[in-house]
Amino acid sequence: NPFGETVYGEKIASLDANGDGIRDLAICDYFGGLVSGCQAGAEGTLYVCLGPYYSTYLPLFEPQPACGDGFTFSIVTHDVNDDGLAEILAGSPTADVGLVFNGGRLSILKP
């Protein structure tokens, strides 16, 4: 993990994020993130690492971050809008939604 000790790399998905025909990796870290003061895990971070060497990466964060959301606890890649490039569907199972505590959220990300 480029930013410290967490659960970086526990879940990984493959996709072609930039359309160059080379497989890239989406690497989950559902305890990572930028929100400070979190006691039981941060909001979560997703790293898109570009192939073939995977040394260039783009960190993606939850659109509405909060402590303990678990962003990227589950991920899948699929071309949702039929443009030839895969989107990343990332689950945040413990995200609060409106007045619903731990209601969960699904984010569709275009790297």
Characterize this entry briefly.
The protein is 0% helix and 34% strand. It has strands at residues 12-15, 24-29, 45-50, 56-61, 74-78, 87-92, 105-109.
Q: Notable features of this structure?
A:
111 residues, mainly beta, 4-stranded antiparallel β-sheet, 3-stranded antiparallel β-sheet, 7 strands, 34% strand
Please characterize this protein's 3D structure.
The protein is an all-beta fold and 111 residues long. The strands form two sheets. The chain has a four-stranded antiparallel beta sheet, with no helix packed on it.
Approximate shape: globular
Strand tally is: 7
Compressed to H and E, one letter per element, the order equals: EEEEEEE
Please identify the structural class as seen in this structure. mainly beta
Cα distance spanning the termini: 19 Å
- Unreliable stretches covering 5 or more consecutive residues: none
SSE arrangement:
Elements: E1 12-15, E2 24-29, E3 45-50, E4 56-61, E5 74-78, E6 87-92, E7 105-109
Antiparallel strand pairs: 1-2, 2-3, 3-4, 5-6, 6-7
